[in-house]
Amino acid sequence: MAARRGPRRRCARPDGTHHGPAEGAAVTTPPPTVDVHAHVLLPEIEALVEGLPGHAQAKALDARRNGPDALRVNGPMIGERLPLLTDPAARLAAMDGQGVDVQLVSPSPSHYHHWTDEETAEKVYRLAGEATAAHCAAAPDRLRGLGLVPLHHPAQAVPALDHALAQDLVGVEISSHAPGRELSDPAYAPFWARAEETGAIVFLHPFGCTLDERLDRWYLSNSVGQPTENAVALSHLIFSGVLDRFPGLRIVAAHGGGYLPTHIGRADHAWSARSDARSGCTHPPSSYLRRIHFDSLVHDPYVLRELVRVAGADRVLLGSDFPFDMGHDDPVGALRVARLSDADFEAVRGGTAAALLRKD
């Protein structure tokens, strides 16, 4: 993975001091700083689905889930950030300001549109892949991209993944579920097999929470809903045995995997105490955390340290949710506050992600 050209910043230690090579020591080039959680907005997709049967109902459901107060804030927030979401030059300038060398760019989850028919769903995933690839082509050494998978039409999952890879994207983004289907559904087995075979990255990023109107105030739809959806989705992958059957999957879970990593002891206890809980997976649930990658976007240095402890520093990747207001404007600074060891800091800052994104 190519790093940004120009003079290289000295890496800051987690305690805030700086360190360089000892005098006379061999100088090694540090890995690039890689942000694996950054989004692009694709107006072409919204123009495609506007006015189609089911679109109005989907918008109404989203409005109920978020509530009127959140919607009043969301519009101006996105408007202010529109250049960062659509203009590669604005994105690159912001990355420079953050000290980020490389972004893994995924379409806004608002583009999932899990209500569309098969024909429209195919158009959406094709447009998403092609438009994201075009955005990243503005700086291919600094921007890598992901396509979309229409989970509501499982038969399209493999073609969607293949289409994304054909656009020189490194994988696909998926939601935590589709209406009436969890990620443990056997219908997704061909997709998991193909993702494992190709080595594609599968970025798990929820959109919306099925707790619906219970979370329609105070932006609970996001602050509670997103980590809940992450935890449920990962639990389905673990307890159903998907990760046993496809051990080579390269899954990256947004939002630090939600509540699951910090409450994995309860899952282990259920697996040990109850036959129904251990009927699907071979090993204790906590052992599977070291088969999943997680972004660092947990908003708490102590939670980040715990995530590194239970999953391993080689499974945690820098993530900012660029450029939304629920993300970090200074992801490296947020990582530094966690006061990890030097080796762990460097792995999370970019070492692991650079290896993950490197082309064969």
Automatic annotation (TrEMBL):
<feature type="compositionally biased region" description="Basic residues">
    <location>
        <begin position="1"/>
        <end position="11"/>
    </location>
</feature>
<feature type="domain" description="Amidohydrolase-related">
    <location>
        <begin position="34"/>
        <end position="358"/>
    </location>
</feature>
<dbReference type="InterPro" id="IPR032466">
    <property type="entry name" value="Metal_Hydrolase"/>
</dbReference>
<dbReference type="GO" id="GO:0019748">
    <property type="term" value="P:secondary metabolic process"/>
</dbReference>
<feature type="region of interest" description="Disordered">
    <location>
        <begin position="1"/>
        <end position="32"/>
    </location>
</feature>
<feature type="compositionally biased region" description="Basic and acidic residues">
    <location>
        <begin position="12"/>
        <end position="21"/>
    </location>
</feature>
<dbReference type="InterPro" id="IPR006680">
    <property type="entry name" value="Amidohydro-rel"/>
</dbReference>
<protein>
    <submittedName>
        <fullName>Amidohydrolase</fullName>
    </submittedName>
</protein>
<dbReference type="GO" id="GO:0016831">
    <property type="term" value="F:carboxy-lyase activity"/>
</dbReference>
<dbReference type="GO" id="GO:0005737">
    <property type="term" value="C:cytoplasm"/>
</dbReference>
<dbReference type="InterPro" id="IPR032465">
    <property type="entry name" value="ACMSD"/>
</dbReference>
<keyword id="KW-0456">Lyase</keyword>
<keyword id="KW-0378">Hydrolase</keyword>
<dbReference type="GO" id="GO:0016787">
    <property type="term" value="F:hydrolase activity"/>
</dbReference>
<dbReference type="Pfam" id="PF04909">
    <property type="entry name" value="Amidohydro_2"/>
</dbReference>
